[in-house]
Amino acid sequence: MVTISRFKERLRRYGKSLRLRLFVILLLVGILPLNVLKIGVLSSYEKQAVKQRADQVRSQCRLIADQLLTSGYLNGSQSDVIDSEVRMLGTLYSGRVVVLNSNFRIVLDTYGIDTDKVLIAQEVLEAFSGEETSNYNSNEQFLEVTVPVRDENTQKTSGMMIIAVPTTDIREGRREISGVINLMQIVLVLLLIGVAFYLTRLLVRPFGKVTARLENDDQFLEEDISIPDYTETQMLAEAYNRMRRRLKEQEDSRQEFVSNVSHELKTPLASMKVLADSLTTQESVPNEVYREFMTDMSSEIDRENQIINDLLSLVKMNRKSPDINIRETNINEMIDLILKRLRPIADKNNIELVLEDYKPIVAEVDETKLTLAITNLVENAIKYNKPNGWVHVSLNMDSSFFFIKVEDSGIGIPEESQPYIFERFYRVDKSHSREIGGTGLGLAITQQAVLMHHGAIRVYSKPGEGTTFTVRIPMKYQAWEEKQEDSHEADE
Ligand code: ADP
Asked: Please, which residues have CB within 8 angstroms of residue 367's CB and are 6 or more apart in sequence?
């Protein structure tokens, strides 16, 4: 059973192969012209042979016709010489010769069947008007030639000769030639099969090379490949190389992410371990020290929790088809609520937190994810601020987008760091960020949430002066599929 299904599979694969198609094309290209040539050769041979035969017969008839004219045979005078000449002509071609006088009466029929009968037919009439006709009947295998007996001086036709000769020998010759061509054809087809088999193998070999290179486990994803045998194989190789580089980048970033995650998760654990060890190794720990260490451990646990929560939010949004819960949302109320929640932290740092909203905005968004995104921005603006600083959040819109701007009077971000701040775990000042409870994931989450809404986020910052983040989100949410279809249409 297994072998049968494997055989079927191989057959199916061969049936769909480029090699079979090339093979068939080569055979057809070889065989078709051969057949056309054969038909051409045979028909031109037949035409030529019939024409030659007609010319031969006609020239002999003409000789006799001259004698018929001068001897008065057509007017009734007997001539054994002419009789026997006509009969000899009939015997020579194994055919029938009929001689007519000007009244269309048959004066001589070598078959002796129709003597004295009147014969009126199209070719007879044509011959009487001075034309020589010849008529080849390939089905019945005979050739009929008419020759007028005509005095060229007086232009008068006084009779005519009709001779019908069998052409079976011409058909025979044709058959013989056809046999030879058939034999040559068989040899040629066999040769062609061999050549096509070899050529197709040669032609598809580079594709086999591509497969072999791609299946080479040692080199998998390790180095670029090049198969310049054909433009097509080179294009395949280049497409593979591009994919390889993308995969490599993804793999590298995945590895970096995993090692960052482990590192970040280990840091609070290490602190807790130190705190716990120092408590257990000491004989009698004063109550206040015990409490202090336990408070530290609790905040390390909070930190661990924060990292895990941030990671979960990021992973959820990074998925190929993230759950997105789009609803009509009052953006003013949403921002209001965010600021209300963060106000205590701002107050604690003596930072002024102001909202400027000019118009009421209702848009289709995932409220939870967008709240998370904006919270991160405002939280950062408070965290990375100066004492007695300010944070301005403003809200605006046009016909298709709404804009959220978060401006602060904080420490700013150095120009060279700005391209990286949206990367996971990137922090300009690691120790400062950790001190104030940062995980390095906040802006990555924000960016992901904005991109899920098909929006855009930008940063403008001057170290020492402050930072501005602007977010632009479409008022109406568009699912990815629709968006991609639209862009296809635009392409077309
Ligand atoms: P974190 O949890 O460390 O705040 P984020 O991803 O939110 O991580 O931010 C990445 C880094 O960008 C921060 O560590 C900080 O150095 C810098 N950053 C973000 N927002 C601001 C801001 N408003 N002002 C100054 N620096 C900022």
From this structure: 325, 327, 329, 334
Q: For a ligand 1 pocket test, name from 303, 309, 427 the mutation site with the most ligand atoms within 8 angstroms of its C-beta.
A: 427
Cα–ligand 1 centroid distance for 260 (angstroms): 17
| Residue among 331, 338, 330, 424 at smallest CA distance from 382 | 338
Q: pLDDT tens across 437-487, in order?
A: 778 899 999 999 999 999 999 999 999 999 999 999 999 988 755 444 444
For residue 136, give Cα distances in angstroms to 47, 54, 88, 123, 266.
10, 9, 22, 13, 105
CA distance 406 to 378: 7
Pocket of ligand 1, beta carbon within 6 A = 376, 380-381, 384, 408, 410-413, 421, 426-429, 433, 438-444, 467
Which residue type, as a one-letter code, is found at position 100? Answer: L
Encode pLDDT of 317-354 as tens digits. 877 667 888 999 999 999 999 999 999 999 998 999 99
Q: Could you report the per-residue pLDDT of 36-51, keeping only the tens digit for each?
A: 999 999 999 999 999 9
Q: 155, exposed or middle or buried, with CB in 10 Å at 0-12, 13-18, 19+?
A: exposed
Atom 20, ligand 1: which residue's CA is nearest? Answer: 380
